[in-house]
Write a structure and sequence with these properties.
six-stranded parallel β-sheet, alpha/beta
């Protein structure tokens, strides 16, 4: 398999899409695949309006088509519904090449949170984008059911994994804050509903890792919260291991790789009972899911660290990659 993965999300962005695709490329050789990533670093780019840290590739159809012809892929996977994704989709359609897609982000909800754009319009556009794909991959059962109800078809499941060697319980605690420590990690933007966490009346300390367009305003409004900025690698792993509960206030995420990182680090989860946390936690007993986020956060304090770590170890990137490459092979074979 010579697989071309087209993505508008790539380094230096820090998000679940980038992380997932990096691990798929790293695992490719175990499944007889050679992967080429077609990403924004190959094109001029401009800042995304209202989100300057994300750059949109100025990917014109001609140059994109030439790259597709040079790579000569046997399989094509389009990971995002952005300029590169649209250009590769058009190239595949012109060449009558089959392709698969994946649904990572709730763009209709994100757009409507920022502008008066009806979600029905956005979902119609997404059905058109994914409609010609041999398969559209989603991360959870509840998201699959929801999208089927919205008219999406040929859906296949693709779960996610976590690096359990990096994210693990540790004896040292790098956060010298008053316990208990309630941690949240992710992009600081309106669609992440972070304010629901920051406004909670909780004992101890709230800590936020991440950056984004809402950080300055939230940091000004919640001066007692510790904002550590964006962290990666060992720095991020040590912070996870220094916390007591991981709070995930998002109502719109399709999965939440940070949930797996927290579990692998031994942290119980506090979240709303919505797609993503409900699928990840399931009946594991490793989290408290409640419409009252404060109640969930306090209840999570009683969940054993060892249970969370053991459950986190069941999510591997090797299994995630097995599903990913199997989906592509079966979809292209018409299975």
């Amino acid at each position: 398999m010579r697989l071309l993965i087209a993505t508008d999300a790539w380094r230096p962005q820090i998000n679940g899409v980038v992380r997932s695709l990096e691990y798929m490329a790293a695992e490719a050789s175990h499944f007889g695949a050679e992967v080429t990533i077609l990403s924004p670093d190959r094109f001029p780019s401009m800042p995304m309006p209202g989100y300057p840290e994300i750059r949109l590739a100025l990917a014109r159809p001609g140059p994109v088509a030439r790259i597709v012809d040079q790579v000569k892929p046997t399989h094509v996977h389009i990971a995002t519904e952005g300029p590169i994704g649209f250009a590769v989709r058009a190239a595949c359609r012109r060449r009558r090449m089959a392709f698969t897609t994946s649904y990572h982000t709730r763009f209709p909800e994100y757009l409507s949170a920022r502008a008066p754009i009806p979600q029905a319009w956005s979902y119609r556009a997404l059905r058109w984008f994914h409609g010609e794909a041999r398969a559209m991959m989603v991360s959870t059962a509840s998201l699959e059911r929801e999208l089927e109800g919205r008219g999406f078809r040929r859906i296949r499941r693709w779960t996610r994994g976590v690096d359990t060697q990096l994210f693990r319980p540790r004896h040292e605690r790098v956060l010298d804050s008053r316990a208990p420590i309630f941690l949240s990690v992710g992009r600081i933007a309106v669609e992440k509903n972070l304010e629901a966490f920051l406004a909670l009346d909780l004992p101890g300390t709230k800590v936020v890792v991440g950056d984004g367009p809402a950080r300055h305003d939230l940091q000004r409004r919640f001066p007692r919260v510790r904002f550590l900025g964006a962290l990666t690698g060992e720095d991020l792993a040590r912070v996870y291991a220094s916390a007591d509960v991981f709070v995930f206030p998002s109502l719109t995420d399709t999965f939440g790789i940070v949930l797996l990182e927290a579990l692998a680090s031994g942290l119980p989860i506090a979240a709303y009972p919505v797609t993503g946390p409900a699928d990840v936690i399931g009946s594991s007993g490793c989290g408290s899911l409640c419409e009252d986020l404060r109640e969930a956060a306090l209840a999570a304090l009683d969940i054993p660290q060892s249970r969370c770590r053991a459950y986190g170890e069941t999510f591997t990137w090797r299994e995630s990659a097995r599903q990913f490459f199997r989906n592509i092979e079966e979809a292209h074979a018409g299975a």
